């Protein structure tokens, strides 16, 4: 088991990539905190992990709210007695072209994808620094590396997440904390279900592998980076995108 007895918080774990990551980590022996906005989704994922023989705690959290984030960390420590891994997965889109994007669309995406990552990263890092070990993994995107039509706000946040990842890797390495990002390509989840079919077909055609990705592909990347197999890996951005930008 690659994460035996490690305590891992995964934000946005109620569905999509976060759900699969929580389940994959639990299969590898982690004690998983399923953190998300949506109570019904959280309960479902927790029950499924437990039914599969894993250990899980559900926490309802809005990552934009620092008090709720601090409570998530406190609940984790109280229930599982520690914190080893944080996957900053919660993220949203609110697409529009630059000429049409509203202030509200800009603020909403910045709040979840950047400020939420800051809150969770800072709160977790304080606990990990005291212990002298830990792993923080951040959800970037192929869009954070190359930009994308209609995603000024999202691209800015996913680019920003890479900046935070590299900065935290520099600051926290001496405290025994590794920090990395994963940059998924187009993955079949409720988030991409909102995209036009023809855009998804185009992405498939652009990939040398001629396929879209699935949440399991990203969960496996997080698993590698969270495990001790990646003990010498920090400050990196692992692209898991089927080579779509080649
Ligand atoms: P998803 O299916 O939309 O799931 C995102 C989850 O995050 C949802 O359960 C959502 O809860 C939760 N969430 C949203 N805002 C939150 C908040 N303020 N606090 C706590 N939880 C919140 O997304 P996904 O496709 O799995 O993507 C997961 C991550 O990977 C995101 O950061 C995304 O940007 C990144 N990513 C995805 C792709 C892709 O192709 N899918 C590609 C590159 C990067 P609700 O259900 O209540 O809204």
Automatic annotation (TrEMBL):
InterPro entries, per the entry: 3oxo_ACP_reduc (IPR011284), KR_dom (IPR057326), NAD(P)-bd_dom_sf (IPR036291), Sc_DH/Rdtase_CS (IPR020904), SDR_fam (IPR002347)
A Pfam family the protein falls into: adh_short_C2
Reactions catalysed according to its record: a (3R)-hydroxyacyl-[ACP] + NADP(+) = a 3-oxoacyl-[ACP] + NADPH + H(+)
Metabolic or biological pathway, per its Swiss-Prot or TrEMBL entry: Lipid metabolism; fatty acid biosynthesis
Binding annotation for NADP(+): 12-15, 62-63, 89, 154-158, 187
Residue span, Ketoreductase domain: 6-185
Residues at the active site: 154
Family annotation (PROSITE patterns): ADH_SHORT (PS00061)
Keywords of the record: Fatty acid biosynthesis, Fatty acid metabolism, Lipid biosynthesis, Lipid metabolism, NADP, Oxidoreductase
Enzyme type, top EC level: oxidoreductase
Enzyme Commission code: 1.1.1.100
Keyword Disulfide bond applies: no
GO BP terms: fatty acid biosynthetic process
One example GO MF annotation: quinone binding
SUPFAM superfamilies referenced in this protein's UniProt entry, alphabetically: NAD(P)-binding Rossmann-fold domains
Entries under NCBIfam families matching the protein: 3oxo_ACP_reduc, PRK05653.1-3, PRK07231.1, PRK12826.1-2
Family stated for the protein in its record: Belongs to the short-chain dehydrogenases/reductases (SDR) family.
Quaternary data: Homotetramer.
The protein's role, per its UniProt record: Catalyzes the NADPH-dependent reduction of beta-ketoacyl-ACP substrates to beta-hydroxyacyl-ACP products, the first reductive step in the elongation cycle of fatty acid biosynthesis.
Name of the protein described by the UniProt record: 3-oxoacyl-[acyl-carrier-protein] reductase
């Amino acid at each position: 088991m690659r994460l035996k007895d490690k305590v891992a918080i995964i934000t946005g774990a109620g569905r999509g990539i976060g759900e699969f990551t929580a389940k994959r980590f639990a299969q590898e022996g982690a004690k998983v905190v399923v953190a998300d906005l949506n109570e019904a989704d959280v309960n479902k994922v927790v029950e499924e992990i437990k039914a599969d023989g894993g250990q899980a705690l559900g926490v309802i959290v809005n990552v934009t709210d620092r008090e709720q984030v601090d409570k998530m960390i406190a609940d984790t420590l109280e229930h599982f007695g520690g914190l080893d891994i944080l996957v900053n997965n919660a993220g949203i889109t609110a697409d529009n072209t630059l000429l049409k994007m509203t202030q509200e669309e800009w603020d909403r995406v910045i709040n979840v994808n950047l400020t939420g990552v800051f809150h969770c990263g800072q709160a977790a890092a304080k606990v990990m620094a005291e212990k002298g070990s830990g792993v923080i993994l951040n959800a970037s995107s192929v869009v954070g590396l190359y930009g994308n039509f209609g995603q000024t706000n999202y691209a800015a946040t996913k680019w920003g997440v890479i900046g935070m990842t590299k900065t935290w890797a520099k600051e926290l390495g001496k405290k025994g904390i590794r920090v990395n990002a994963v940059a998924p390509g187009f993955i079949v989840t409720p988030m991409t279900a909102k995209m036009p079919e023809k855009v998804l077909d185009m992405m498939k055609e652009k990939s040398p592998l001629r396929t879209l990705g699935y949440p399991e592909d990203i969960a496996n990347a997080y698993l590698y980076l969270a495990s001790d197999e990646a003990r010498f890996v920090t400050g990196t951005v692992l692209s898991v995108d089927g080579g779509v930008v080649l």
